[in-house]
Amino acid sequence: EAQVTQNPRYLITVTGKKLTVTCSQNMNHEYMSWYRQDPGLGLRQIYYSMNVEVTDKGDVPEGYKVSRKEKRNFPLILESPSPNQTSLYFCASRGQPTNEKLFFGSGTQLSVL
Amino acid sequence: AQKVTQAQTEISVVEKEDVTLDCVYETRDTTYYLFWYKQPPSGELVFLIRRNSFDEQNEISGRYSWNFQKSTSSFNFTITASQVVDSAVYFCALMPNSGYSTLTFGKGTMLLVSP
């Protein structure tokens, strides 16, 4: 089954404790992206990757890191989480052509205390 | 820069009423794509439709219909005879047809359908 898999689904952590949210897709998609969703703000893009080893900032990249060492994986790294990063996070991927729809993961609800 | 505006934050209707969700967009690109996604209470994002800027034909899929008007930069979504299962947050999104190709979302409209 074609899917984008995020883990974990829920995560509670404390300020400053490094964490990684994993994202994997099995559709051989070149494009992958991370969004965060906050009430009243909709979904905002954090980072995206057009291909392996190619990443770029989205609208709200501060406090986040990503890597794209393999085509299928696109982890989101919070080196020193802060409470304002409490949010619902979505990973997404898309194939070619570029106008194809985004496939989204199920989301990761992160709470930073 | 591109922008998507969903002016309706929340809409409440009674089952079987028709409801229209508004979406207005801004872009300098001459070609682009418009999308609608649904987010039910379970939280996942469900793709509903993609529309090419070249194609201004309205589309109907069951109880759902979409009205794309390039002249007013709008891509409105109508649910006919709403049902409780339609309760969700609906997002409109825009993507330019260029190498950058990132999807910009509106802030969403929460639709509450009561029995």
Please, could you describe this protein's structure?
The complex is a heterodimer of chains A (113) and B (115). Chain A is 0% helix and 50% strand. Chain A has 113 residues and is mainly beta. In chain A, the strands form 2 sheets. In chain A, strands 2, 4, 5, 6, 9, 10 and 11 form a 7-stranded mixed beta sheet that branches. In chain A, strand 4 (31-38) and strand 5 form a beta hairpin. Chain A starts with a strand and ends with a strand. In chain A, 37% of the residues are buried. Chain B is mainly beta. In chain B, 0% of the residues lie in helices and 53% in strands. Chain B is built from no helices and 12 strands. In chain B, strands 2, 5, 6, 10, 11 and 12 form a 6-stranded mixed beta sheet that branches. In chain B, strands 3-9-8-7 form a 4-stranded antiparallel beta sheet, with no helix packed on it. In chain B, strand 10 and strand 11 form a beta hairpin. The radius of gyration of chain B is 14 Å and the shape is globular. The N and C termini of chain B lie far apart (41 Å). The mean pLDDT of chain B is 92.
Q: Largest interface, per-chain counts?
A: A-B, 22 and 22 residues
Q: Which stretches of chain B are low in confidence, meaning pLDDT under 50 for 5 or more residues running?
A: none
Distance between the termini of chain B: 41 Å
Low-confidence spans of chain A: none
The string of secondary-structure elements of chain B, in order, is: EEEEEEEEEEEE
Strand content of chain B: over 45%
What's the Cα radius of gyration of chain A?
Answer: 13 Å
Could you tell me the mean pLDDT of chain A? 93
Strand percentage of chain A, roughly? over 45%
Q: What is the H-and-E element order of chain A? A: EEEEEEEEEEE
SSE-based structural type of chain B: mainly beta
Q: Could you give a short account of the major beta sheet of chain B? A: 6 strands, mixed
| Arithmetic mean of pLDDT of chain B | 92
Shape of chain B: globular
Q: How much helix is in the residues of chain B?
A: under 10%
Quaternary state, please? heterodimer
SS element count, helices of chain A: 0
